[in-house]
UniProtKB/TrEMBL annotation:
It holds the Pfam family THF_DHG_CYH. NADP(+) binds at G166, R167, S168, I232. One of its GO terms (cellular component) is cytosol. Belongs to the tetrahydrofolate dehydrogenase/cyclohydrolase family. HAMAP family: THF_DHG_CYH. CDD domains: NAD_bind_m-THF_DH_Cyclohyd. This is Bifunctional protein FolD. Keywords: Amino-acid biosynthesis, Histidine biosynthesis, Hydrolase, Methionine biosynthesis, Multifunctional enzyme, NADP, One-carbon metabolism, Oxidoreductase, Purine biosynthesis. Residues 6-121 form the Tetrahydrofolate dehydrogenase/cyclohydrolase catalytic domain. The gene is folD. One of its GO terms (biological process) is methionine biosynthetic process. Pathway: One-carbon metabolism; tetrahydrofolate interconversion.
Length: 297
């Protein structure tokens, strides 16, 4: 079997188009423009690239983008004061504090200072608890991206065996909660899992989110399974230079999977699209309006 390629770029374009349509409707019918505030502390080059891309895409779908760039030595008190101000600003519906933060800032404290209703990353402890108990929450963008692609490919996920490789708070754990919410039988595998190849071989759905280049070989993949590769790893090419690869060995896995996300061009492009979807959702909730269909968990 040669797998169907799940095109994350096309998918993301579709999500952005849906968001843009809803944003235009909000403006026309209610005079409301969703606003996303992004806070960047310091000058981490990768974070700067992400923040620029988020700002650009926010404006492209018709939302307001508010960027706050703070010096690397900003005090915790000053950062918390800014978050407080954004929490009470009615023009701001979503707040994202770009991670990682410089070492002197307590990330948990900062994230939990964000109003949970504006926490478009879904990292606030209240949102974690709401998701874990199957209640309405803000859902982290990467697992939401994976869920949207899985639903689009399968329709119903009910009763499918899903293995999530990786137990991070940002991807692995919320991914498992979302799959459970869609009635999958879920296993969370990690570095101490015994017999990982056999665990993965049982899965109808494999979500790989460990950050280890090409660690899942094709012969771990059940024939016809759906493979979602969250990994983005830069490796050296034998001939010099570098390239991006996922956590799954794409060449061998695509000969056995029914469908697979490539790296790059799979989950990656979807994450900012889902951030915009979350901002729209937060704006609708804040204004007592119906949530956009197909853009939430
Ligand atoms: N840094 C890298 N990815 C993310 C993300 O999804 N959210 C935040 N807040 N910071 C990040």
């Amino acid at each position: 079997m040669t797998a169907q390629i799940i095109d994350g770029k096309a998918f993301a374009a579709d999500v952005r188009a849906k968001v843009a349509t809803q944003v235009a409707r909000l403006k026309e019918e209610h005079g409301i423009t969703p606003g996303l505030a992004v806070v960047l502390v310091g000058e981490d080059p990768a974070s700067q690239v992400y923040v620029r891309s988020k700002g650009k895409q926010t404006v492209e779908v018709g939302m307001n983008s508010y960027e706050h760039r703070l010096d690397a030595d900003t005090s915790e008190a000053d950062l918390l004061a800014l978050i407080d101000q954004l929490n009470t600003d009615p023009a701001v519906h979503g707040i994202l504090v770009q991670l990682p933060l410089p070492g002197h800032l307590n990330e948990d404290l900062v994230i939990n200072a964000i109003d949970p209703a504006k926490d478009v990353d879904g990292f606030h402890i209240s949102n974690v608890g709401l998701l874990g108990t199957g209640q309405k929450s803000m859902v982290p963008c990467t697992p939401l991206s994976c869920l949207m692609m899985l639903r689009a490919h399968h329709g119903s996920l009910s009763g499918l065996d899903a293995v999530v490789i990786g137990r991070s708070n940002i991807v692995g754990k919320p991914m498992a909660q979302l799959l459970l919410g869609d009635s999958c039988t879920v296993t969370i595998a990690h570095s101490r899992t015994k017999n990982l190849p056999d665990v993965v071989r049982r899965a109808d759905i494999v979500v790989a989110a460990v950050g280890r280049p090409e660690m899942v070989p094709g012969d771990w993949i059940k024939e016809g399974a759906t493979v979602i590769d969250v990994g983005i790893n830069r490796i050296e090419k034998p001939e010099g230079g570098t390239r991006l690869v996922g956590d799954v060995d794409f060449a061998s896995a695509s000969l056995r999977a029914g469908a697979i996300t490539p790296v790059p061009g799979g989950v990656g492009p979807m994450t900012i699209a889902c951030l915009l979807a979350n901002t729209l959702t937060a704006c609708c909730r804040a204004n007592g309006l119906a949530e956009p269909e197909g853009l939430t968990a």
